Amino acid sequence: MSRRFALVVVLTTILMFAAGCKDKEEPPKEELPSEALAAYLAAWQKLDFEAMYDRLTPEAQAKQTKEAFAERYRKIYEGIEAVDLTVEPVAPDPSPATSASPEGSPDAELTETSLEYRVGMETLAGPIRFENAAKLKKTTLLNPEGKEEKKWRIEWEPSLLFPGMAEGDKVRVQTTKGERGEILDRNGNGLAMNGTAMQLGIVPGKLGDQPEATKAKLAQLLGIEAADIDKKLSAKWVKPDLFVPIAVVDEEDLEKFADVPGIDYQRKKIRAYPYGEATAHLTGYIGEISAEQLEKKKDQGYAVGDLIGKAGMEQVFEDRLRGSDGAKIFIAAPDGREKEILAERPAEAGETIRLTIDADLQLAMYNELKKESSTAAAIQPVSGEILALISTPSYDPNAFVRGLSDEQYKAWNDDPRHPFLNRFTKGYAPGSAFKLITAAMGLDTGTLDPAKKENIPGLKWTKDASWGNYYVKRVHEVNPVDLSRALIYSDNIYFAQAALRIGPEKFVEEAAKFGIGEDLPLEYPFRKSQLANDGLRGEILLADTGYGQGEVMMTSLHVALLYSTLVNDGSVVRPALTLNPDGETAPRLWKERAMKPETAALLKQDLIEAVSKPDGVGHGAYIPGASIAGKTGTAEIKQTKDGDGTENGWFVGFNAADPKLLAAVMVEGVQGKGGSAYVTPMVKRIFEYSLKHPSR
């Protein structure tokens, strides 16, 4: 036998042996019930409902299509906002003795069994946790080759979704709105409150034979355009028999609509702003969330139609005011009856925020200034509590929640005085009100001698020829002039010279001690104050800055805080806009020793004389026996030194004998009205009111 032939024989023998061995291989291992359940649960864990369906018995599949099965699960899980789903088995395979096979026959084939599993998830109503048992049945199926195979399949029934659920039952979700927190003043008066009002609406199918005439009549009665009604009636959800909200009306006006066909009413919850225009810029208002806001806050639980703060405190404190919605997930019988609660989370009201604001003082100041374009801030200078923040002209925030007509919105929006502009958050040139700070810096740096008398001839002054045609102008020629007389007569030239002696670097360094250039330490956004747009560039800008012109910009609140140094031994009080739960604030300082105590004492006395002396520029605010200390200021806004422009008038003052109120008031457009002298009588009346009605 050749070697080649022998090799062929050997290989043939090996192949035949291998084939024989293959024929004798054991059949594929049969899937255990636990493995079948594990596969079903794994698909459930992944929300692969189609794969779950494939694991059901043929009988269960015959009762519903794969699409219907998957859609049912998907809708339920989306409806309850299920996340963090966990599905896992909790029991081992049963022994044949405990199966559906003949009892006591360990060799009998297992055909039916029941295995336990555990489900957990987080939902919009809180966690859902349960254990349940799934029935499995060994089923004869055809494999892809057409051969019969034994497979374990799930006998599906509604209780697999949730225990206690039967055929025909539904999983329902019921939500309740968390009430919005209210905004109160220091004395408990409501600034933004929850109330009810009558919602007037139309049932389109009941408008009668002349619907256009009916809508026109209703529009006339409401003071709106018929197009506004048509717009609401054209919404996609509107049906002939549904109530379509049109406007909120006062109950005493309901009789006007009695003979209008198709009109109906519903009582609705509404946000109310009792002080209206007087606190509009402070409180702001709420409105329906916009698509843009919804996109930004989609992960914070907001939904289409939700109300959200649109301006003011309502917007700034949205997260605190907003209530937490409640939800209940339950199994409902076919007749709608609640069978079993799966999860429940009660609604929670938002926080009630109590402000330091004195609403009555706020109203009194608003009434004094409402005809002007103005801003004002009033503080308690020792505690730092903000008592009033005023911006005029104003608007009624109630209109935004009751229903604002296009006509009214256009009137406000087109008003050249800009009633929507929140002036108390904006920066303005403080004018001579800033001279207090220049004086303090000069005294503390030793560059200003308060007793030294200067002779400054004329009403105009220029440093030298390097200034060209530029000059500093003053109103009164008073010689000789010292610090006290410079404050009493508000001498621009004196303070321009004082600023030049301090020098730009030191001026910036000293100004920073007063928080100039910093954000105010408040939740409410105020514009940051500034000395200049891009540093104190050159002597002219420095000189102008010394008397509050140039590029100095400050809010009325920051100006008020600067003057608090005069009652706090030279320290700037920290402002407070909200009260602690106990209704109090702990006095704190924002900038300690912004000026020396002796400097503060000297300047306070000078400002008392600036008001008490008959020839002082602040004498218009004088109140016998009240010891008002104050400083006027007139800020010029014009393109050129000799050109025409406008003037803003300031007065900042407090009662030095009883410093419970410090007010900084600025009125725009006082040119031709006496400048700052136009403002002082207004502030006087504010102080007279305060003396009669001290803030609690």
From TrEMBL:
Return the InterPro entries for the record. Beta-lactam/transpept (IPR050515), Beta-lactam/transpept-like (IPR012338), MecA_N (IPR007887), NTF2-like_dom_sf (IPR032710), PBP_dimer (IPR005311), PBP_dimer_sf (IPR036138), PCN-bd_Tpept (IPR001460)
What residues does the Penicillin-binding protein dimerisation domain cover? Answer: 176-338
User: Where does the sequence pass through the membrane?
Assistant: none
Recite the UniProt keywords alphabetically: Membrane, Signal
Location of the Penicillin-binding protein transpeptidase domain: 375-688
Q: Which GO terms describe its molecular function?
A: penicillin binding; peptidoglycan L,D-transpeptidase activity
Per UniProt, subcellular location reads as:
Membrane
For whether the record's keyword set contains Signal, the answer is yes
Q: Which residues form the NTF2-like N-terminal transpeptidase domain?
A: 33-169
Which Pfam families does UniProt cross-reference here?
Answer: MecA_N (PF05223), PBP_dimer (PF03717), Transpeptidase (PF00905)
Instruction: Show the segment(s) annotated as Disordered.
Output: 87-109
Q: What broad class describes the main subcellular location of this protein?
A: membrane
Q: Which residues form the signal peptide?
A: 1-18
Q: Name one GO cellular component term.
A: plasma membrane
> From its record, what is one biological process in GO terms?
response to antibiotic
Membrane as a keyword of this entry, yes or no, is yes
Per the record, the domain of life is Bacteria
Family label: Belongs to the transpeptidase family.
Q: What is this protein called?
A: Penicillin-binding transpeptidase domain-containing protein
